[in-house]
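Weekly structure sync, notes
Attendees: PL (lead), two postdocs, one rotation student
Agenda item 3: pending single-chain targets
PL asked that the sequence for the first pending target be pasted directly into the notes so everyone works from the same version. It is reproduced below exactly as submitted, 333 residues in total.
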Amino acid sequence: MRRRFFVVSAVLFFCWVSSLCWRGGASLICKIWGPEEVLASCLSSPPENKKQGLSTLFSTACKLAAQVDPAKSGLLRSVLPVVDAVDTVALAAPIPAVSTAVPQQEQEDPPLVAIYNTHTGETYALTDGVDRVKGAGGVVQAAAALEEGLRRRNIAVLRSEKIHDVSYAASYLESEKTVREFLYLNPELDGIFDVHRDSKLPRGGATVNIQGRDVARVLIIVGSDDRLPFPAWRQNLEFAERIAARADALYPGLCTGVRVKGGRYNQYFSPRALLLEIGGVNNTLEEAETAATLFADVLADVLQDMKDEESVTATDSVQPFPLPRDNSSQSGG
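Predicted structure, written out during the meeting:
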């Protein structure tokens, strides 16, 4: 009699468990027990020391008849997937935090300068046999050497070879247009350099020996307000004096100093606009190009130092002067 009771009980229990599986048993189970209990019950665990007796026999009969453990873990395993303990631990591990480190800031843009020639036809008599040519003279090649030297020092360069002196009297009016174009494209140029050569320098004072080579000398010209309004010209003068001092430190004798003249020479566009006379009419082109290459080291040092100073002090980069509304320059003005 007792045996029949166990068999009937097992069959009824099997039907009940099957009903759970067929009719959303997983959903019902989750409503009865909390997530922690569900998870813990699904994990593999060592067998418990069960008490011997009627409950043990009932449990055994159920397992044999319905292949389901009547304990909580057994019921859960019948309707939920069995999860391996190792996988569960891995899933329960904290998710690695996403790195919030700020990426290293990109390297700051290098200084940017513009180079042009107002008197494009100026040249070097010891090479060309004349002091002027139609079109591009030796000063254009000296300007190219200056550009190349700056680029080697990681200075960005804009250079124009436009002919400005077809009419010599209007040359500054023409080169002013080029300066305006430079500033339209790049309002915050770190330097604007107009390359010339001295027309009166005698051969005796035209060269200096640097590192065993005869090199042309460089004169820096700064415009003033003697002829036309130019209230901020002393800013250009400070820039020129800083360059001359660095030239004396790097290559003594290369720079003959700074000379202030009455014209404005397109320098009223920017506090870092200068006229550079690289050599003179009595130099060779090779001497002038060598001088331009050495002077590029000087300019690169000063420009980079000023860029670094602006970065440290968080000041704005160089700002151009307000642009005049029309071409008000005079020859040399």
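Discussion points:
- The CA atoms of residues 127 and 284 lie 5 Å apart.
- The longest strand covers residues 191-198.
Action: rotation student to compare against the earlier draft before next sync.
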